[in-house]
Amino acid sequence: xxxxxxxxxxxxxxxxxxxxxxxxxxxxxxxxxxxxxxxxxxxxxxxxxxxxxxxxxxxxxxxxxxxxxxxxxxxxxxxxxxxxxxxxxxxxxxxxxxxxxxxxxxxxxxxxxxxxxxxxxxxxxxxxxxxxxxxxxxxxxxxxxxxxxxxxxxxxxxxxxxxxxxxxxxxxxxxxxxxxxxxxxxxxxxxxxxxxxxxxxxxxxxxxxxxxxxxxxxxxxxxxxxxxxxxxxxxxxxxxxxxxxxxxxxxxxxxxxxxxxxxxxxxxxxxxxxxxxxxxxxxxxxxxxxxxxxxxxxxxxxxxxxxxxxxxxxxxxxxxxxxxxxxxxxxxxxxxxxxxxxxxxxxxxxxxxxxxxxxxxxxxxxxxxxxxxxxxxxxxxxxxxxxxxxxxxxxxxxxxxxxxxxxxxxxxxxxxxxxxxxxxxxxxxxxxxxxxxxxxxxxxxxxxxxxxxxxxxxxxxxxxxxxxxxx
Length: 471
Known about the structure:
Layout: H1 3-28, H2 38-62, H3 72-87, H4 93-114, H5 120-146, E1 150-153, E2 162-167, E3 170-173, H6 178-197, H7 203-222, H8 226-247, H9 252-284, E4 292-293, H10 312-315, H11 324-337, H12 348-355, H13 360-364, H14 371-404, H15 410-426, H16 439-470
Parallel strand pairs: 1-4
Antiparallel strand pairs: 1-2, 2-3
Helix pairs in contact: 1-2, 2-4, 3-4, 3-14, 4-16, 5-6, 5-7, 6-7, 6-8, 6-15, 7-9, 8-9, 8-15, 11-14, 14-16, 15-16
């Protein structure tokens, strides 16, 4: 058996997997895609999952690139998912097994793609494609804002139905969910900053990245996604802090200056948010109505109403979290009723309705809107501890490398870390990161693989230098 030949073919298939999977997940965020028959989506992602499982089999059994020892926490997490599905079966057993397969693909294939240095050039190409395509989608969305375009229709796939354009003072635009789309815009904004600062790129991608900055920032604000805004604030602070820290002399005074610059970046974000909220609704007030329909049976509206970004679902409520606190409380109540293995992901609603019908999750039929509370409720302690430990260990190591590294590729490592941080922050307010099949999940595990590779290589090199010096 020619291992080198198999490895070369595996790299090619991983490239196919990288571009195909990411493209499918990006298209899934477009609202109109949901109008297509579900069979198309099922068929596409079934083929992707089969390719992912083939790559997993090759890496694990033939190339032996996946170490059980290094991935013991992830393996324990998968075993906990299996146990939870079986204990809570037979209800939802097949649906849980499907979800477990996807989780395996994210943890051992997507992560491994990011951990493979031979694929980093392909990831760079993917980043440029994402910047260009996401710019087109967000520009279309912003044009909907100025054109007063709105369309709302009932659709079982979405809790509030299908929404396109500017609806209830939020810019959904072409996207199915402004929260998830806003988080992707934060990631695209980070990528754009990197390509602007990079010296190795063509003029086209630099110009596209420069255009991307205001476009993505405007969409984040108009989307009304506080999750995306919080994520942007966090990465703006830490990104500026570590960028300045790396370029400084690393004396006590430079630490203070880096911290101060981080705070200035935060103020800049809030200042930009205020400027957009103040100016763009006034500009849109003077533009003509393009199209406005509220239900399938409603007539076309050509009368314009006042344009405002004030959200009635938030501003007119005492609960600043927009029900998130209640969902978290409800998730914890469910966790306390089954602390060891949880309800299993696909049985959460059914369990809540049967065992705890008075909980907020049972009455509202919404999920936890926080990946930790969701893990606790659906997988219990056995599932939550290993995956959280794995993520926390990777964060701690990345933070250590950010502090001590002086490598030329520092900016690239900082970018990868910030993309992970952006998704991680958003996952504290959305059901993302684990046990879902979304573009944010894909980006997190892909870039965490890159972060892990850089960290491992840096620390290995540092240990070699230390041992050589010691001798």
